[in-house]
Amino acid sequence: MSTIIERLKKGQSVAEIDAVAIEENLSSDEIVAGILDGTIVIPKNVNRHNLRAMGVGKGLRTKVNANIGTSDEYPLVEEELHKLEIAEKAGADAVMDLSTGGPLVDIRTQILAKSVLPLGTVPIYQAAVLAKDSYGSIVDMTPDDVFRVIETQAKEGVDFMTVHAGITWKTLNALQQQGRVADIVSRGGAFTVGWMIHNDKENLLYEQYDRLLEIARKYDVTLSLGDGLRPGCLADASDRAQFQELLVLGELVDRARKADVQVMVEGPGHMPFDQIAANMRLEKEICNGAPFYVLGPLVTDVAPGYDHITAAIGGTMAAVSGADFLCYVTPREHLGLPTAQDVHDGVIASRIAAHAADIVKGIKGAAEWDLSMAKARKALDWNEQIRLSIDPAKAEAARNERKIKDVEGCTMCGDFCAMKVVAQYLGTKVESC
């Protein structure tokens, strides 16, 4: 098998290209151009046969990812599969399995079998769990241990993988010299740094990056270059360590493209609102337009229980400024493993942020959706308003909970409905959609 990029370079037809073009209301030529110049990726493993093709990148609708996965405290496979179902129903475009407890292979294979969404993983999580079981310590894992997990997950059909290959001794020195309030909050980043210091060696994923590229090319796995030193609080945003790692990631993007491997870049994190736009532009410049995948960014540190909102605020600005892929944040971020309801609320919040940005970005169909809603509101067409809602079930429940029988308006305005008054006294026509 060959990668999407290799097939396109040979002039072969690629079904995923046409599927994404139809979904995005763009021409196939536009998608091909984006794939070949690296500004668009279509995460699809050669071994995935039940996948709904999804594109991420320049000119495309901003996508939303939902994280699910077990922990030691909650190693419940069925609960995570229920979260998968909830995420899909809420409109997530992709999912990541971040499991660290229970039957890791079983949950991943079940997700791959049951879901039509692209699946991402962080292979070092499983490598760390296996190392702890085998050696009693995460930092005693070997490079072969890590690459064995990477290849196994690739064979299983994982579509994209987060790899923290940008942490080097130079980036780590920048972190140590400047200092931080929250140090390292990325779990994969922490594992990597711990391994480097304990073994007094360079980051194995950086040092053996060509080995990683060989596996990615073999299975057409999209690499998601993780930001292991992303800021975990506002005070640490935009520091030397973050930017030093970004410089390395820019180099790794170039090497992946030369190897015909699809690649995107991950970004912060926690960040003051006024720094977001500059960070997005800097990533695009340093990484030559590679698709940017951001967590949030969260614009304040003081809203536990509401971090889906802090992330949506930052996510809108990030996407307006160039981010292509938003990783959702749930209300339970910083507090515990999310519930199914948290997953739903996190997906919806990120979808709102993504759509708000798409209107500004001029994505085809974005503004038209809002125009249709405006017409439905003017017509007092409640069924159409509910149908057009980003969360129809919630909209319908809210309407029915405080609905008075046979009243055309709502219980907020009643007979004083602005739409009705304008139609009656100014002679404007209340049209249906």
UniProtKB/TrEMBL annotation:
[4Fe-4S] cluster binds at C410, C413, C417. One of its GO terms (molecular function) is zinc ion binding. Binds 1 [4Fe-4S] cluster per subunit. The cluster is coordinated with 3 cysteines and an exchangeable S-adenosyl-L-methionine. It catalyses: 5-amino-1-(5-phospho-beta-D-ribosyl)imidazole + S-adenosyl-L-methionine = 4-amino-2-methyl-5-(phosphooxymethyl)pyrimidine + CO + 5'-deoxyadenosine + formate + L-methionine + 3 H(+). Its cofactor is [4Fe-4S] cluster. Substrate binds at N67, M96, Y125, H164, S186, R187, G188, D227, G228, L229, R230, E266, Y293. The keyword S-adenosyl-L-methionine applies. It holds the Pfam family ThiC_Rad_SAM. The keyword RNA-binding does not apply. PANTHER family: PHOSPHOMETHYLPYRIMIDINE SYNTHASE, CHLOROPLASTIC, THIAMINE BIOSYNTHESIS PROTEIN THIC. This is Phosphomethylpyrimidine synthase. It comes from Candidatus Aquicultor secundus.
